[in-house]
Amino acid sequence: MHQILEMIENKEYKKLHQKLQTMKPADIAEILHNLSDKNFLLVFRLLPKDFAIEVFSSMDSNEQAKLSKLINIDELRELVKELNFDDKIDFLEEIPAQLVKRILQNCQEQERTLINQFLNYPEYSAGSLMTIEFVDLKKEMTVKEAIDHIRKTGFKKETIYTCYVIDAFRKLEGIISLKDIILADKNKKIKDLMEKDFISITTTEDQEEIAEIFKKYDLLAVPVVDLENRLVGIITVDDIIDVIEEENTEDFHKMAALQPTEKEYINSEVFSLVKQRLPWLAILMISATFTGSIIEKFESVLSKVTALTVFMPMLMGTGGNAGSQSSTLVIRSIALGEVECEDILKILWKEFRVSLLVGVSLAIVNFARIFFIENYSILIALAVSITLFITIILAEMIGGALPILAKLLRLDPAIMASPVLTTILDTLVLVTYFSISKIILNI
Amino acid sequence: MHQILEMIENKEYKKLHQKLQTMKPADIAEILHNLSDKNFLLVFRLLPKDFAIEVFSSMDSNEQAKLSKLINIDELRELVKELNFDDKIDFLEEIPAQLVKRILQNCQEQERTLINQFLNYPEYSAGSLMTIEFVDLKKEMTVKEAIDHIRKTGFKKETIYTCYVIDAFRKLEGIISLKDIILADKNKKIKDLMEKDFISITTTEDQEEIAEIFKKYDLLAVPVVDLENRLVGIITVDDIIDVIEEENTEDFHKMAALQPTEKEYINSEVFSLVKQRLPWLAILMISATFTGSIIEKFESVLSKVTALTVFMPMLMGTGGNAGSQSSTLVIRSIALGEVECEDILKILWKEFRVSLLVGVSLAIVNFARIFFIENYSILIALAVSITLFITIILAEMIGGALPILAKLLRLDPAIMASPVLTTILDTLVLVTYFSISKIILNI
């Protein structure tokens, strides 16, 4: 990085040009990310054409958009033309429709139709993830013929490691790995080697489901077919890794009460960050009115024993933390497919036993602290510790059950995490606290 | 599933045997997961031997451990012998040392040494992820010779799609994809085709870093070398997908104040779940003593205007939620490599502007609610709303900065999420609240 900047500053363009060619495209994309617009363009134009295309493919969509504003339309057209088909679609999906139109102006009618068809697949569907650059074989081919066919057509394919056997109507009849082809007798027929019992998905399949399939079966690529079982594309594992990270990011965000977005945090505008945060914060703030009205209702209790206020934050905080622990465990287990809705009783029973042990332990520590160290009356220590015990049981059982209930209601379990749960628990904890205090302290 | 159970019940073992052979190993593993011990063993023994090995590889470690208790040592030995090398190591890593010893008893000296060497690599390191089943080529080979070599040795390799060129001392000189070999002229030499400027990692590299490399460069496999640059193994992308999910689970757990564990929630013992939760809950509970002592200090303020207590939970809750939003955004950005430590000022400036907008909006809504709807005095409404505004600013700036500070201190940013942050914020919010109330209400 430092070296590159130095060469730019000293205008050692020839040296820079040579240096860039020894680097990996992904590393150059990373460097471009950190350059000013002017230097960004300068470095990009120093790249040999083939290499520039690879670097462009390695950039994230923000950088690609930035570059497309810096270069002129002819350069852009040239660049897009050479991209792999799925990278091309990814890029065109992200830029304004007007620009897409201008880029595709000089395209052949047939390709333009195809691109527009792909741009119409719903976001996050198999259709928008797949590429058309796969190797297709015929079942009557021999291994030798298949290899010759791969050698002739393989250059611009996304992968040649899984090949797809289709009939005259493009119906998918089987799949075969290059490994099986290479290791087989040269005179054998593809139809005798191919896997007929293969996994395929349709164009409308959701990306989360597709990622599950890749994880379960350890696949490198999966074929995508239309409703008539005609092969329309393939999805490769490198794109699925991105999907997995996207889905995880979405869960992290939902669990923190953020509206999901695809934009990188560091490149987001202030206003879009506000939009991402404000709705849930406002909803949760207004829901917290409940806790206020409970305190109002029990104001007489609090005014008689003001010491009770001292332990309110600790009780609510511990309840929130305990609930967040169990809900996170269950939310994550659902996401990884380890837990199903029918496990709800098993979860409640497990959480009940765990919360008994955790509750008793914390209540004892807490009692000791309040009574022996802080020298409050034994009745206050008792009221607080019993509340804490009940709080833990409520928090862990509700925390464990809510994500499953969300799933049963076809909501995303992730929204039942800490913020929503804490708001519910705060109310319950306060009611428990004041009711128990009233009884024990005889107010 | 239902069908399988029916066949077991009706003792239609022949039909079951046939049915199983039409299924995918991963699907059978899933079914076994849900069977009783007796049926588990019955179904497993109905599988043809080769197929049983594939099913075993598809099982998770809990199921593998279960099976290893159900079958006798000879059967187990037979099974382990046939596993892929990396699956073998994964399995042996998970079972008691005593059992490992018994399984390896009849092994050849050389293999036992190799296995023990692999078992000694630190968990989560490249050494424990890699396999030795790769294709090695010599640089003097022609393409034709290389293909012949692959055909001869490729059967039991984890992948043949990336081949490794080594010298007589097993030093790694280059890598070459099967695609490049297949598409090249048959008489060309491997040394003229191979990539000399390749990415490799050492045996001690952490799995999180390795996953980053796969994501950045879209790799299918990466070579692992020792300190003398001798090739000792390779890591393939299917294992990396598991690593990515493991690392994400770890982050989810840490962010909810859970001690990380590799065990599935639903199969965990109650006691181990307690161990996972109790330490942080206790630490956070004791830290909450701070909030208590602040309330004690300001007890005179509270006893004069008991209405102030009503808004405590709302203020602390909103502070916690706002902090959790910004810390989650930054923690996730760090995990995805989008944010570096040097971005801290950029983050603070961004968070400052976001929190101004969010804070003003929420403060206005809040003021309206307290003054117009709930009919509290204008001074109380003012005190609460100003506190809310300051709370949001503190929460978002601290929430944004803490994960970066953690990273600077070489701690995991994920521990700075909601629970830890909320405990810090609770204290700050209460001090702000009481100080501002004292001034505005002139107590």
From TrEMBL, chains A, B:
**The keyword Nucleus belongs to this UniProt entry's keyword annotation:** no
Q: Which GO terms describe its cellular component?
A: plasma membrane
TM segment ranges: 354-372, 378-402, 414-436
Task: Please indicate if the UniProt record lists Protein biosynthesis as a keyword.
Answer: no
Q: Which keywords does the record carry?
A: CBS domain, Cell membrane, Magnesium, Membrane, Metal-binding, Transmembrane, Transmembrane helix, Transport
Q: Where in the cell is it found?
A: Cell membrane; Membrane
Q: Name one GO molecular function term.
A: magnesium ion transmembrane transporter activity
Please give the chief subcellular localization of this protein.
Answer: membrane
The record ties this protein, via SMART domains, to: CBS, MgtE_N
What does the record say about its membrane topology? Multi-pass membrane protein
Q: Which InterPro entries match?
A: CBS_dom, CBS_dom_sf, Mg_transptr_MgtE_intracell_dom, MgtE_N_sf, MgtE_transporter, SLC41_membr_dom, SLC41_membr_dom_sf
> Can you give the residue ranges of the CBS domain?
130-193, 194-250
PROSITE patterns found in the cross-reference section: CBS
Q: What is this protein's function per UniProt? A: Acts as a magnesium transporter.
Subunit structure comment from the entry: Homodimer.
Q: Which family does it belong to?
A: Belongs to the SLC41A transporter family.
- What is the name of the protein in this document? Magnesium transporter MgtE
* Species lineage: Bacteria, Bacillati, Bacillota, Clostridia, Eubacteriales
